[in-house]
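Support request, please re-run this one:
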Amino acid sequence: MSTLTMADGAGTRKAARRSAPRAAEGRMRAHMKNAALASAGRSKIQWAEAQMPVLMQIRQRVAKEKPLRGIRLACCLHVTTETAHLMLTLQAAGADVALCASNPLSTQDDIAASLVKDFGISVYAVRGEDRQTYYDHIHAVLSRSPHITMDDGADLVSTIHKEPNRYGHDILGGTEETTTGVIRLKSLDRQGQLRYPVIAVNDADTKHLFDNRYGTGQSTIDGILRATNRLLAGSVFVVAGYGWCGKGLAQRARGMGAHVIVTEVNPIHGLEAVMDGFQVMPLVEAVRRADIIVTVTGCCQVLTEPHFTKMKDGAIIANAGHFDVEIDLDSLRRLAKSPRNLREGIQQYELKDGRRINVLGEGRLVNLACAEGHPPGVMDMSFANQALAAEYLKRESTRLAPHVYPVPKVIDEEIARLKLSALGLSLDRLTPEQQRYLASWELGT
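Re-run finished. Output below.
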């Protein structure tokens, strides 16, 4: 087991085994792979800055106003270049920020190192960390008694609710970034067990209409191409799930020349896919034809044994959903010989009849396991929502009961206006007469 670099409160470094965070919980400032990577991480952070103008405008304002002064903020997010700018914005707003990874394979170790070494932000994240270390890092972040949680998948909220006597006593509220996380939170809400108000950042129009569709579409294709170096033109590309992420992925795959098949369980989404010009059929039929299959459903057990037994030799499968539960790898292991690593990010499973199935990124988020995740230009809006939602929670938490709330429309529209302004674009305005017309019921034909 490899050793890792750890930074304590005094800024000194020492080697530690992966089990160290639990023993040091509450006093350790950071747990990262290697502080020497900081320079490379700092360069990436600087490069992304020009592509995140909305967040930069917010940072300039909050640096003066300090709306989060005195707030301890626990974040469980993908530790990427874009996330670094969110952390720096929250820090500029006066918050005491601690960050851990929301996926074991999504951390960019150089970014983690730069955040700790160059900016003094507490980060607990190492790419490839095992499950024990993953949850040790979550516990380390929560041990700081946060006032606000910021989730990507709801693992912070879930841990707080599973250990109510240990965590959550100072919580004012939280935010959630993903479709999967919002589903989990709404389940808690329906059961009357949610302990504090949470803003569903994922459901903001400036998040899901852009991040989920354009970000996931591009970054998933990016991850597949980096891992496989395959030509998509002419291939049969199956998209399992036609939500906002699936729509973006299907559009991008078609744009690369692939023949796209969509599979769905929702009749409205299935009909929409047909109207958008895609073939629609059950997954068990689609996999017979597929060269590449990507799950993007937010559900579990999407690709299972009946699908594996029908796939073509050489089929490539990947997951673009948040958790690694969409592909039943346990069943695939039972059907196949021990996998072998063909290229970085590809594990090949050979079935008893000689057919080979190639799994990308260990079944985890392929856009982060095999690439760099969403581009800064789209995360600019998503993380602007996160920053402004945290400010809103600080201001309004005493008025909010435990519940899953939408991002206030005024925040959503302000982010869109800032983005348009940064692009050098402007909109028309309603005239007073038009405003009166739209507000009246008397006028008609």
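The chain is about 45% helix and 20% strand. The chain has two domains: 4-207+374-422, 214-369.
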